[in-house]
Amino acid sequence: MIQAPIKTYLYPAYGIASLGKVAVEVMLQLYLFDFYTRILGLSPILAGLAFGVAIFWDALSDLLVSAGLFAARSRGITYTATLWSGAVLLAATTVLLFSPFQSDSTLYLFLHLLVAYVLVNTGMTLLDLPQSSLSAELSRLANERNTLLASRMGFGILGLAVGSALPGIYLTTLSSEPTLVELADSRRISAWVLAALVLFTGTLTAFFLRPRERETSQEVNSALPTWAEVKGLFRDRAFVQILCAGVIAAIGRTINAALALMYYRFVLELSEAQVTQAIFPVFTLSIVLSIPLWIALSKRYGKSAPAYLSVGGLGVMGIIAYPILPAGLVWPSLIISSIGGVLCGAVFLIDSMITDLIDTDEVETGRRKESLYFAVWKSGLKVARALAFVAIGLGLQAMGLDMSRDVASESMQWGIVLLFGIAVGLCFVAASFFIWRADVPEPNET
Q1: Taking Cα atoms as reference points, which of 111, 46, 136 lies closest to residue 354?
Q2: SS (H, E, C) the chain
Q3: Which comes out higher in pLDDT, residue 147 or 321?
Q4: Do residues 232 and 121 lie in contact, with contact meaning Cβ atoms separated by under 8 Å?
Q5: Residues 194, 96: contact at Cβ < 8 Å?
Q6: Contact assessment for residue 381 and residue 252, using Cβ atoms and an 8 Å cutoff
Q7: What would the pLDDT profile of 220-252 be if each residue is shown by its tens digit?
Q8: Nearest to 132 by CA among 158, 157, 152, 160
Q9: How many whole angstroms separate alpha carbon 96 and alpha carbon 56?
Q10: Which of 178, 255, 231 is nearest to 424 (CA)?
Q11: What pLDDT was estimated at residue 445?
Q12: Euclidean distance between CA atoms 388 and 408, whole angstroms
């Protein structure tokens, strides 16, 4: 099947929606748990329960949205239209999530967090799943799709920088150590800014990709997969191995993101300003600078080897480095963040490997099932995140960590180190093993 080459401007148009989406996602991962526990006073176990339930719904919504996308396509509703509706919902509910109407009722805070987070995750799915599916449809050429995914990751990394640093930028305007009220304001104002960013970037992607999608959508079969096809997905050994790797890595990433501020605050005794204005930006810049390296390595050695070496290296680094970093010093953390950022830069290769599996399946079945593949993939990751948040809440509750205090006992510090460094590192090492075992065909074999 012959398609016209992708026009150059479509690469950034495809990726830019990730800027707003990832900025929100990162802010939720880094600040939401801290916002509801330390700042608003909700207990860690209730916050973890609300997170877990909301993310379980998110995993289910991936499957529902996937089925809905097939039905919508058969009625002429495009991926880009669904993507834009998701951007609108995500923008509105991000503001709602960080703006509870009262904070003195535990039951109200729990319900507000639960309902608002469910709506945020629904908006995220309506934006993210169509964008992922478009990567397999807009082009059949491996190099073009790699460039699309690299564009998506590049804008996503920029979103990572914005979402992680925005609350800290607000805090730089203060002349003294921020109070809890000022910390809450930094999160709420950031939520408004990110909502506008999500709406703007989602609109750009939907507008510029619509003509290309209308051309390529005429070439694909959008019938709803049968139950046999769904079960057949789990007989694809390579996909199952990649899915296992993604699930295990998602558990590690969730623990790492939720405990990052706690680790730097309680264990390394660094201020939030030092973390958000130095460590996070260095981490982000390292990812951005490493992307051309991973693209070049994937062209020379294939995708699997760079992917499992980077993920495994990230795990080994965390196991060794995080337990021994000295307290009160920023520069050792900056070095580790830069190394970690370079290793994280290879993540986009895994999404690209899934598109190769979609191509292989099309050769065997004659049908495109990108929505099904990405729905199962993302659902698995979200179930893993939900379980991780429940475990985090239970773990912090069992440790008796008082989030309102500025110090933690030595035993609590070691508990955080074990979770943040060693447990997360072991997750990444295990994930790299599954990537290594996955026999994903290179594009020239499909």
Answers
A1: 136
A2: CCCCCCCCCHHHHHHCHHHHHHHHHHHHHHHHHHHHHHHCCCCHHHHHHHHHHHHHHHHHHHHHHHHHHHHHHHCCCCHHHHHHHHHHHHHHHHHHHCCCCCCCCHHHHHHHHHHHHHHHHHHHHHHHHHHHHHHHHCCCCHHHHHHHHHHHHHHHHHHHHHHHHHHHHHHCCCCCCCCHHHHHHHHHHHHHHHHHHHHHHHHHHHHHHHHHHHHHHCCCCCCCCCHHHHHHHCCCHHHHHHHHHHHHHHHHHHHHHHHHHHHHHHHCCCCHHHHHHHHHHHHHHHHHHHHHHHHHHHHHHCCHHHHHHHHHHHHHHHHHHCCCCCCCCCHHHHHHHHHHHHHHCCCHHHHHHHHHHHHHHHHHHCCCCHHHHHHHHHHHHHHHHHHHHHHHHHHHHHHCCCCCCCCCCHHHHHHHHHHHHHHHHHHHHHHHHHHHHCCCCCHHHC
A3: 321
A4: no
A5: no
A6: no
A7: 445 556 667 777 778 888 888 989 998 999 899
A8: 152
A9: 20
A10: 255
A11: 42
A12: 22
Give me the domains of the chain, ranges plus CATH numbers: 10-445 (1.20.1250.20)
* Residue 427: C-alpha distances to residues 88, 130, 222, 411, 423 (Å): 35, 29, 36, 23, 6
Least-confidence region, from 262-276, 372-386, 428-442: 372-386
Query: Of the candidates 315, 14, 1, which has an alpha carbon nearest to the alpha carbon of residue 156?
Result: 14
Six-digit token string for 54:
């909301």
pLDDT digit string (tens) for 35-50?
A: 998 888 888 889 888 9
Which tokens hold the place of 407?
A: 């110090």
Cβ-contact 19, 204 below 8 angstroms: no
| CB-based contacts of 372, cutoff 8 Å, min separation 6 | 66, 225, 229, 230, 233
Measured CA to CA in angstroms, residue 206 lies from 84, 134, 141, 344 at distances of 6, 11, 22, 28
Is-contact 440 236, C-beta < 8 A? Answer: no
Q: Which of 22, 17, 90, 91 lies closest to 287 in space, CA to CA? A: 22
Answer yes or no: are the C-beta atoms of 353 and 307 closer than 8 Å: yes
Residue with tokens 């990709």: 209
Predicted confidence at residue 16, as pLDDT, reads 93
The sign of the dihedral angle between the CA atoms of 428, 356, 373, 209 is positive
d(CA 37, CA 106): 11
The first and second tokens of residue 369, run together, are: 């099932």
Q: How far is CA 426 from the centre of its chain?
A: 19
